[in-house]
Design brief:
The structure holds 2 protein chains of 2 kinds.
Chain A (H helix, E strand, L loop, with lengths): L4 E6 L4 H16 L3 E6 L9 H5 L13 H10 L6 H10 L3 E6 H7 L13 E2 L1 H8 L5 E4 L1
Parallel strand pairs in A: 1-2, 1-5, 2-3, 3-4
Helix pairs in contact in A: 1-4
Chain B lengths: L7 E4 L7 H11 L6 E6 L4 H12 L2 E6 L5 E6 L7
Parallel strand pairs in B: 1-2
Antiparallel strand pairs in B: 2-4, 3-4
Classes of the chains: A alpha/beta, B alpha+beta.
């Protein structure tokens, strides 16, 4: 039974940016810390099956961090490379809830029907901030 | 060699944070109180991770060999700590 709570807000799903919070969440969940993750802005698209497959390194980071290279390095250190696999693994710990922001979901075409299996649905930002983040022992934004 | 009888050995060689601690947590959860887990690692981050994890979880660090490249820890599983 998890006794401590951490909330995370993920707003950037570029591959090189999303790996760190998901890794942190995995580590915390393995220690029986309960983790609530809210995907906001365009990051919410990573919660769709096809969205998770399309996560890449983009923008300025793409100039010096190549997606395929980074994927291979992540596999080398033993972490799952596929975003969907990581999200399913987090759910498999039993200590993680994963939500999509309702406004971001509406904008980026994410519904509870097209989310990856096992996700915890689409919720309002107010609920997450007031009921989850403000009551957590630690809140992180990525 | 440890005088303690090792219940299970977990080899995390080649893996980096967060995997060694994730795998260590999962391995320890399957053991009984008093069982002994030997952890092999190459990630130097475990030099701080393992002792602090033992303190938080009520485990006892019986041995540690923290000179790279191969690090080794022997941990006895303890009673859960009330937080």
């Amino acid at each position: 039974m998890a006794e401590k709570n951490v909330s995370m807000i993920i707003r950037n799903s570029d591959y090189d940016k999303i790996i760190t919070p998901l890794g942190f969440a995995f580590m915390l969940a393995a220690e029986d810390v309960h983790v609530d993750i809210m995907f906001v802005s365009k990051a919410v698209a990573a919660l769709r099956e096809e969205g998770a497959l399309q996560v890449r390194v983009t923008g300025d980071s793409a100039k010096d961090t190549q997606y395929e290279w980074l994927r291979q390095e992540i596999v080398k250190v033993g972490f799952p490379a596929d975003i969907a696999e990581i999200l399913q693994g987090l759910k498999g710990t039993g200590n993680v809830n994963i939500y999509g922001c309702s406004t971001a979901a509406a904008i980026f075409g994410v519904t509870e029907d097209n989310m990856l299996p096992g996700m915890d649905g689409v919720v309002g930002g107010g609920w997450f901030l007031l009921e989850i983040a403000m009551k957590a022992d630690l809140s992180l934004t990525f | 060699m440890s005088e303690a009888t090792i219940t299970q050995t977990l080899d995390t060689s080649g893996k980096s944070c967060p995997m060694p601690m994730i795998e260590t947590n999962f391995a320890m959860k399957k053991l009984q109180i008093g069982d002994i887990l030997e952890i092999i690692a190459t990630d130097v981050g475990t030099r701080k991770d393992i002792p602090s994890w033992c303190d938080r979880k009520g485990h006892t660090l019986l041995e540690s060999q923290t000179d790279p490249p191969t690090l080794r820890y022997v941990v006895r599983k303890g009673e859960p700590v009330e937080s």
